[in-house]
Write a structure and sequence with these properties.
The chain is α+β, with helices and mostly antiparallel strands and about 210 residues long. The chain has helices spanning about 5-15, 70-80, 135-140, 160-165, 190-205, and strands spanning about 25-35, 40-45, 55-60, 60-65, 90-95, 100, 105-115, 130-135, 145-150, 175-185, 190.
Length: about 210
């Protein structure tokens, strides 16, 4: 293959930059719902029969398929998981995306859900959703999360090519840190990526307009 500068320039002009080395992309809907005259966030509890992360709190969402936009994915997944039709959701915008260390990117989409689409029409898919619950936005705005940290320590495999690269086996790899926000709520814990997305929304809400 020969290098073609013109083709490269054309590609860069039409290509949207993404997350380097990302193998997967996901989107979740962050559902705002008015209940009793106040905005709430809707959360799911993942079904206990699921192979990955059973019983954990999350937002509706999943893997982006084909040429879907993050918004289209979030709306589709919300319909599949909760039975809320896309016409009952007003997309308000994207929150900050997450570039995860496991080489995937996640797009949180903030959406305003018509409360008439919930009761008595809310229909969680039992194969995916154990239950749903609501947290008042005022509580989240006024109750900061408990925050924890743990260290990320690189551990190269035995066959890592130290000699080829020219570095010693006791090379001082740069360690990282993961911050874990936890929002306790009525015996549940909103944490992990869902906690980070919740915190990001609250930070945006508190930012000067």
């Amino acid at each position: 293959m020969e290098f073609d500068l013109t083709a490269l320039e054309r590609t860069l002009h039409t290509r949207a930059p993404g997350l380097m080395d990302a193998h997967r992309a996901y989107a979740v809907l962050v559902p705002l719902v008015e209940k009793e005259g106040e905005q709430h966030l809707l959360y799911e509890v993942r079904a206990s029969t699921l192979r990955r992360q059973p019983g954990e709190v999350c937002f509706p969402g999943g893997r982006i398929e084909g040429s879907e936009t993050p918004e289209e994915c979030a709306l589709r997944e919300t319909w599949e998981e909760l039975g809320i039709p896309r016409e009952s959701i007003k997309i308000l915008g994207r929150l900050d995306f997450i570039a995860h260390r496991a080489n995937f990117i996640m797009y949180p989409i903030l959406g305003l859900v018509d409360s008439r689409a919930l009761s008595p029409h809310l229909n969680p898919n039992p194969a995916e959703v154990e239950e749903v619950f609501f947290v008042p936005l005022s509580h989240l705005l006024n109750t900061p999360p408990i925050e924890y940290e743990y260290e990320l320590i690189p551990t190269p495999a035995e066959n890592f090519p130290y000699d080829l690269i020219g570095i010693p086996r006791d090379y001082q790899w740069q360690h990282g840190w993961e911050n874990v926000p936890v929002y306790p709520w009525q015996g549940r814990a909103i944490w992990g990526l869902t906690g980070r997305i919740t915190r990001n929304l609250i930070q945006i809400c508190k930012a000067p307009g």
